[in-house]
Design goal:
The structure is a single chain. By secondary structure, the chain is of the alpha/beta class. Helices cover about 45% and strands about 15% of the residues. The chain has 2 domains: about 240 residues, 3-Layer(aba) Sandwich (Aspartate Aminotransferase, domain 2), CATH 3.40.640; about 120 residues, Aspartate Aminotransferase, domain 1 (Alpha-Beta Complex). Helix 9 links the parallel strand 7 and strand 8. Helix 6 packs parallel to helix 7. The chain is globular and about 65 Å long. It comes from Rosa chinensis (China rose). GO terms for molecular function: isopenicillin-N epimerase activity. It is an enzyme of class 5 (isomerase). This is Putative isopenicillin-N epimerase.
Length: about 450
């Protein structure tokens, strides 16, 4: 909840703002939200917050102040401000994610970097003969593409056996996920092998669905999986994030997707354990050997301002009723409402029940659009951007054997505080026009 004094004074560290005798508490207004995101292209229906996130103007101003502080006297900034500022951000993140200790929290560029840190450690386990060749790493089939590549680059090359958990789509319940996950663990343990690492998404990217991570982590513990890494690129600011409740060994999430930070910043949580596994940043700096949090806080000269504006971000979200919890609740309710509106307009369905969604939802696209390949999804996405000024990702679902007239194309819509109902109506009308015109993806040039 924000108080009535000028918000910018708070960001500037001005403690001498006038306090009235009867302070009036108020929340951010629609016009103030519009001003905070006035740098967004007003001609585009930007219903894809999930890909790159968004950053309000007040936080961009705070970032600029940090950048100028560095540029005005880099030595003073390095020795007297940088480490203290990053520690402050780590402390705030610790509280947001309910971790026990601040030294369990490192700040890195993004979830892809965090995955490289964890998978690098797994690769050393194989190359240093701590693991047997052929021991397994389990991951979801819908794991993020870059994470799959990291597993290939680190684990497969080092001699690990990778098992993908096939997941159905559309999904009807968490039971479908749990059943397939258990089967994959059984496969990983066949012939006396060990499952050394399970990589679990919290919210898959494409198709997007909230995964029951707490239950899957519990199953991993029961089945003797060495370590669990939760790739939660979308989670913080989007769904419930509680380290003590989830119980994973490693957990990462981007703060620039759903928590309004400028790109790029993510946290990597590493649970303290008696095993004392030592992780290292893949970029080796002078800080090597001083612990991952310290290594990550200095990887050479670069712009660290995204890692320093977390206090300003919390100032921003607390201007909303209910703070970040209120934002998450309203985003979820609105994106489900908009998804149901689109599904009804197109005669299709959602990709999963509303309770398996957070601030993003999948909706089937009319079958007559003729989406028959990944290439078609990119062509259609470009067409929607260039002809209709709608920005939305498209997903191709290959038809299964025996399926007739199944939906092969789905869109993923997001909702963030800057979105308006008209953004979704614009998308609805664009698809309806394509259907009315007899459009198919085959008409688009390669």
């Amino acid at each position: 909840m924000a108080s009535s004094p000028d918000h910018n004074h708070t960001l500037n560290g001005d403690s001498n703002t006038h306090a009235s005798k009867k302070p009036k508490l108020s929340f951010i207004t629609p016009s103030e939200i519009a001003a905070e995101f006035s740098h967004h292209d007003p001609t585009v229906a930007r219903i894809n917050n999930g890909s790159f996130g968004s950053c309000p103007d007040s936080v961009l101003q705070a970032q600029r102040r940090w950048q100028l502080k560095y540029l005005s006297q880099p030595d003073h900034f390095y020795f007297n401000h940088l480490q203290a500022g990053i520690l402050h951000s780590r402390t705030l993140i610790r509280d947001l994610i309910n971790a026990d200790h601040v030294d369990e929290v490192s700040i890195v560029d993004n979830a892809t970097t965090a995955a490289a840190i964890v998978l690098q450690q797994a690769a050393w386990g194989f190359s240093e003969s701590k693991f047997e060749q052929g021991d397994a790493v389990v991951m979801l089939h819908y794991a993020y593409g870059a994470v799959k590549k990291s597993i290939e680059a680190y684990v497969t090359r080092a001699g690990g056996h990778v098992i993908e958990v096939p997941l159905p789509f559309p999904l009807n319940s968490n039971d479908e996920i749990v059943t397939e996950f258990k089967k994959a663990l059984e496969k990983g343990k066949a012939n006396g092998r060990r499952v050394r690492l399970a990589v679990i998404d919290h919210i898959t990217s494409m198709p997007c669905v909230v995964i029951p991570v707490k239950e899957l982590v519990k199953i991993c513990r029961e089945e003797g999986v060495d370590q669990v890494f939760v790739d939660a690129a979308h989670s913080i600011g989007c769904t419930e994030v509680d380290m003590k409740d989830i119980g994973a060994d490693y957990y990462t999430s981007n703060l620039h997707k759903w928590l309004f930070c400028p790109p790029s910043i993510a946290f990597l949580y590493c649970r303290k354990s008696p095993k004392g596994v030592e992780l290292h940043h893949p970029v080796v700096s002078h800080e090597y050997g001083n612990g991952l949090a310290i290594e990550s806080a200095w990887i050479g000269t670069r712009d660290y301002s995204p890692q320093l504006v977390v206090p300003a971000v919390l100032d921003f979200v607390n201007r909303f009723e209910g703070g970040i919890e209120g934002i998450k609740k309203r985003n979820h309710e609105t994106v489900v409402e908009m998804g149901q509106m689109l599904a009804k307009a197109w005669g299709t369905h959602l990709g999963c029940p509303p309770e398996m969604c957070a601030s993003m939802v999948m909706i089937g696209l009319p079958a007559c659009l003729g989406i028959s390949s990944e290439k078609d999804t990119l062509k259609l996405r470009t067409h929607l951007r260039e002809k209709f000024a709608v920005e939305v990702p498209i997903y191709f679902r290959p038809p299964k054997n025996g399926e007739v007239e199944s939906l092969t194309g789905y869109c993923r819509i997001s909702h963030q505080v800057y979105n308006k109902v008209d953004d979704y109506y614009k998308f609805r009308d664009a698809i309806n026009q394509l259907v009315s015109d007899g459009f198919t993806c085959a008409l688009l040039s390669n």
